[in-house]
Amino acid sequence: AQTVTQSQPEMSVQEAETVTLSCTYDTSENNYYLFWYKQPPSRQMILVIRQEAYKQQNATENRFSVNFQKAAKSFSLKISDSQLGDTAMYFCAFMKHATGTASKLTFGTGTRLQVTL
Amino acid sequence: NAGVTQTPKFQVLKTGQSMTLQCAQDMNHEYMSWYRQDPGMGLRLIHYSVGAGITDQGEVPNGYNVSRSTTEDFPLRLLSAAPSQTSVYFCASRPPGTGAYEQYFGPGTRLTVT
Asked: A22 with A76: CB under 8 angstroms?
């Protein structure tokens, strides 16, 4: 079974600054996918960024980027130029590459990020 | 497209009552799932389906039933509600296949069992 660990329950960052959220995972799989989801106070789950384990290049999406270290089983999220709208709970999630069956998400416990003025 | 819709948004039940949480998607996604979100525990998979007529258990299936008679709908049934089922419930769907496809989540149902 896979496990996902987010060791920072809460973080705070000032507007326009950079913050990094940590995520580690444990798996015996070689092919898998990793995701960061954002959950603002509206409760809606929003995909922020995704990474395929077979790709060495770190994924980026505008102000969001990841540092994927496969050997260390680490998948951190960097948010640059933080904005008030980034205030949310952030979840790291793992999905096994599974042929022929639904690939299920395993979530971490989340990091609550507060962006302040 | 409406995406993934869930009804109701809020529900209060008494212990022992039954109810069905509705989930529908209009994206023709074969894969659908139900998760529950509890404080400090992230989201945990309850049941999932890879297509009409096919369902399977996730991590925390006890106390819940599902069926999938159409591609669009995936209802979650609580047969006899318990306080431990107080949670926020999310339905999700995604296209089939083995790629890093995004799961699309509904807005959630907040359920309180007293």
From this structure: yes
Interface test with A, best of B43, B47, B102 (most A CBs within 10 A): B43
The answer on pLDDT for A101 being more than 80 is no
**Token reading at B86:** 């107080």
Residues of chain B contacting residue A45, judged by C-beta atoms under 8 Å apart: 43, 90, 92, 105
Instruction: In whole angstroms, give the CA distance from residue A51 to residue A32.
Output: 9
Give the whole-angstrom CA distance, residue A105 versus residue B21: 21
Residue B43's closest CA among A31, A8, A99, A43? A43
How confident is the model over B39-91, as pLDDT tens digits?
A: 888 899 999 998 899 999 999 999 999 999 999 999 999 999 999 999 999 99
Nearest to B25 by CA among B92, B87, B100, B103: B92
Task: Locate the chain B residue with the closest alpha carbon to A48.
Answer: B102
Instruction: Evaluate whether A23 touches A75 at the Cβ level (below 8 Å).
Output: yes
In whole numbers, what is the pLDDT of chain B averaged over residues?
A: 93
Chain A CA closest to residue B59: A106
Q: Is the dihedral of CA A49, A53, A55, A58 positive or negative?
A: positive
Q: Are B16 and B103 in contact (CB under 8 A)?
A: no
Backbone angles phi, psi at B85, to 5 degrees: -95, 5
Name every chain B residue with its beta carbon within 8 A of the beta carbon of A103. Answer: 31, 98
Smallest Cβ–Cβ distance between B50 and the set A4, A91, A101 belongs to A101
